[in-house]
Design brief:
Distance between the termini: 32 Å
Helix content: 55-70%
Number of helices: 7
Strand content: under 5%
Length: 125
């Protein structure tokens, strides 16, 4: 990361630190958007909330609700955060076909970047 971008991100972070982010003000959301945009140039991706919340609020929500039935919404997210890797593995074993729905979602960007890097540097199998 170049020094100009590093300084810009630090400046945005310091502005953000004086805002009550819990209130989700327009100003805070705008600053977070600027930080996300700048970091994205370096293939660094930030969650909107956190991975589990972002997944639950995405287009695969109904698949998660089906998988975690009879849990309620808040219980689903709470359970997703426990034993993350094993729960994600179990979900994907049963519902991997739903991942296609995330193809145009920012949630998929890190995976798509990794896939592209691997194919570019190591080829496809």
């Amino acid at each position: 990361m170049n020094e100009k971008d590093r300084k810009e991100i630090e400046e945005l972070k310091s502005k953000l630190s004086i805002i009550n982010v819990k209130e989700c003000s327009i100003e805070a959301n705008n600053l977070l958007g600027e930080i996300r945009k700048k970091l994205k140039e370096y293939d660094i991706f930030l969650a909107k909330i956190d991975l589990e919340e972002d997944l639950f609020r995405s287009c695969i929500k109904t698949y998660l609700e089906d998988f975690y039935f009879p849990y309620l919404d808040d219980e689903i997210v709470k359970d997703m955060k426990k034993r993350k890797a094993s729960h994600m593995y179990e979900f994907l074993k049963e519902k991997k076909s739903c991942l296609v729905k995330l193809a145009d979602d920012d949630l998929a960007l890190p995976l798509l970047k990794a896939k592209n890097y691997i194919e570019t540097n190591y080829g496809t199998y």
